[in-house]
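Record Endonuclease/exonuclease/phosphatase family protein, 306 aa.
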Amino acid sequence: MSAFTVHCWNLERNGKQDPALRQKAHELLVRDNPALVLRQEMPGADDDGAAVMYELEEILGMRGWLGPRSCTAVFADQDVFRTVRTWPQTGPMWVLPPTALTMRYLPAGRDALPLIVASFHLNYASTTTRLAEAEWLTTWADKRWTTADGETVRVPALLGGDTNSYPEACGLGEPALPVLDAIHDEPHRAHRSYRAPEGRRMDTRPDEVLYTAGLHDVAQHHADRLGGGSADALAPTVDACDTHGPEARIDRVYVTAELLPAVTDVDVIPVPLVMSDHHVLRLTLDGDLLADILNRQPVDSLSFAR
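=>
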């Protein structure tokens, strides 16, 4: 398998609770034939015996896993990924718990390392809670696996979701951090900023925590690799609006460093506002390189420094 895509999407209220809109939204994803879909905002997906999840599995042609309290989900092409364990206990701090799985990339073979795949949604209203949630998110970059020869090693991780916060500036042409006064909704100013010793600043702390833990923003990495930035990789995932302020790159995918060489493209699939208030973040990976990485074969390293 030479290449495959991963979609990360916060579909507003799971299709705004409209079955026809929800179907149309997921048909949009099917056109790209993703191998993984990381979904956020899944209210109602656990009702009536999880009927909505079965509906979405049929539309996508993928198997789905719904996280605790029907907040997030992961869908996978079973010809490409198989789950070897779930992680139902995600830590004590989550308002909207993630869906986290240990998954085997089948083309890599049975002796290859698995990887952690997680869909997350950080808290909307509290910078303090988001910071704690991001700290718990780092635990998915610290999972271990015992190989066939008895060696215990850390496995790679791929985590994607709605951060409800901003990336630390990288100087590569991405949307600028908002100015506080540009957010017209006063409560939302409090939701997205915090009081630092030097004065109020916009919330980038989840991104800083994840980077410190060895998790890399794939969009920034891809833009850096292209030399001078990429409008596609760093495109906003939410548009400007009166309440939330300027456009921003709220939705992000993070991977541990060993997976970076397999990332060949990052872009954003535009979505009309009538469908959702978030666009789709798309990540493309080289499947052969991923197989080499999971089999711990040497690959060309790609540096990234902020």
